[in-house]
Amino acid sequence: MPDIHGVFDSIGSGQNHPVTDRAREALEITKLRSQELLPETAWLAKLARAEATGIPLRIKLGLDPTAPDIHIGHTVVLDKLRQLQDLGHTVIFLIGDFTSMIGDPSGRNTTRPPLTREQIEANAATYSAQVSGLLDPARTEVRYNSEWSDALGARGMIQLAARYTVARIMERDDFTKRFRDGTPISVHELLYPLMQGYDSVALRSDLEIGGTDQKFNLLVGRALQAEYGQEAQCVLTMPLLEGLDGVEKMSKSKGNTIGITEPPNDMFGKLMSISDTLMWRYFELLSRRTPGEIAALRHEVEGGRNPRDAKVMLATEITARFHGAAAARAAEADFDNRARGGIPDVIPEVTLAGAPLGIGSLLKQANLAPSTSEAMRLVDGSGVRIDGAVVSDRGLRLPAGTFVVQVGKRKFARVTLT
Description:
Blueprint: H1 21-31, E1 36-38, H2 40-53, E2 58-63, H3 75-86, E3 90-95, H4 117-131, E4 140-144, H5 146-161, H6 166-170, H7 173-180, H8 187-203, E5 207-211, H9 215-227, E6 234-238, H10 264-273, H11 276-286, H12 291-302, H13 307-323, H14 325-339, E7 349-352, E8 357-358, H15 359-365, H16 372-380, E9 384-386, E10 389-390, E11 397-398, E12 401-407, E13 411-417
Helix pairs in contact: 1-2, 5-8, 8-9, 10-13, 10-14, 11-13, 13-14, 15-16
């Protein structure tokens, strides 16, 4: 796709400041593990100005609260924000409570269903609480884009839309593909990049960070700031972390995530479930180890060391980051116990009535399967055990009593039937 936004080299400050070694070091920190910085010369000039004037730069990250939890894929960007805070700059954590009502169409081939106001408010409250443990509160502004978007009104929305052309919007890859394939595009979806760009105008951001799938939207912010007579923000894109399947990006809507508030045993187990190949991608984007340390570990594995050792190191590091070292050690012990066929020390206790009860109904009522049809599929796949014995009979009915029920490697419940 052509660079439709004219990536300018001038930051428009009207004054040049000396570029010091400290500014150059800050530039390298900004670029570390990133995908693309546009334009690099302008960001270096901004860093030099901030050092000379003592005025911190304003760095924006916007997240739409489409689900109640932040996952570890988000932390690729959040870790970068923390690095920039440690350099003395201000992070604006923008919760897109207004834009969530539109639904970000980035990378999608269908219209995203909009959320209700109640869903947005509940998810936004969770986002704010979770991010507080990842960023420096003293250098973080938490903002909601309804502050200025609601105030625009119909007249303001029309005036904003007049500052950008349909031709530019349609150069976005996903819109182009959907239009070519005859897939419907709702008018409100065309407004999403404009509203995200207007956030940058309202916040006077110096740098906006996002995943590589957000590049178009981030550049719209540059273009609109220029339209409103502001100094254009720079754009930093970060790699997208693949989900547990190793195919799609980690996404709450795809169900392939690891939430940062998930119990330590679940977090550890999910990290151990990724492929040996995907493990190195997780090391690269999530680990606090240096690139040299990761390269050395990879060389050891390629030389014959068991890749499981490296995966345990990764799972322990990430679990400890969110739950502490003791919880990570306990999670490793729990994982090893399950791998040997053992039962965790603590499992849910469930009491159900209706004995004798069919295996499908039991699994559904004990929250071990989302439906009876899925329960039958699990039985057919030899994924269900009762007191350690594999269940192969779809018609099994359990009498009154207490049983340890296991589904897959990680789901357990002690079920009492009456």
